[in-house]
């Protein structure tokens, strides 16, 4: 998916959430607010978009979003379970039906034992949680942009499947 495709897709996602009477919140690490920005750029997003948390530091993931400190100690922040816990944590914090989270390594080099471009997207829905691993090539900017697109795609696919994971 290209960035412009995601821009077109976001209003449809928000309209779908409104039609279902459901809400969304996001938790971001490597994307640093870009994901939330995609949603709030749509007029009327406040109808279903509850807000977002940029939990860039590992400790913030635990303190603010309720990610298991033991899990963070064991695996570090670049982990599928961490992404799931971030998504569930932001959904609980913002009292939203859906939580969407990003965590990973934007680069330029490896970090915490993972290559640049390693990204996890977490999703929390009324049906449960899931995580999705991605590997992107390119510089820091492109990895961050691709991560936003991946998160939007994960959410869109879940909505197409009526929230089933």
From TrEMBL:
Domain of life: Bacteria
InterPro entries listed in its UniProt record: CinA-like_C, CinA_C
Matching Pfam families: CinA (PF02464)
Domain CinA C-terminal, chain residue ranges per copy: 13-158
Name of the molecule in the record: CinA family protein
Species this chain originates from: Trueperella pecoris
């Amino acid at each position: 998916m290209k960035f412009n495709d995601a821009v077109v897709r976001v209003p449809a996602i928000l309209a779908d959430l409104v039609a279902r009477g459901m809400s969304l919140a996001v938790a971001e690490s490597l994307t640093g607010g870009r994901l939330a920005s995609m949603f709030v750029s749509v007029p009327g997003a406040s109808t279903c978009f509850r807000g977002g948390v940029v939990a860039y530091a590992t400790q913030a993931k635990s303190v603010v979003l309720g990610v298991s400190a033991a899990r963070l100690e064991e695996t570090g922040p670049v982990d599928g379970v961490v992404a799931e816990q971030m998504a569930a944590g932001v959904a609980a914090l913002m009292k939203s039906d859906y939580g969407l989270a990003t965590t990973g390594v934007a680069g330029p080099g490896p970090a915490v034992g993972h290559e640049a471009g390693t990204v996890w997207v977490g999703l929390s829905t009324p049906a449960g949680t899931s995580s999705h691993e991605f590997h992107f090539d390119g510089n820091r900017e492109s990895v961050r942009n691709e991560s936003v697109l991946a998160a939007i795609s994960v959410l869109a696919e879940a909505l197409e499947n009526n929230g089933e994971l």
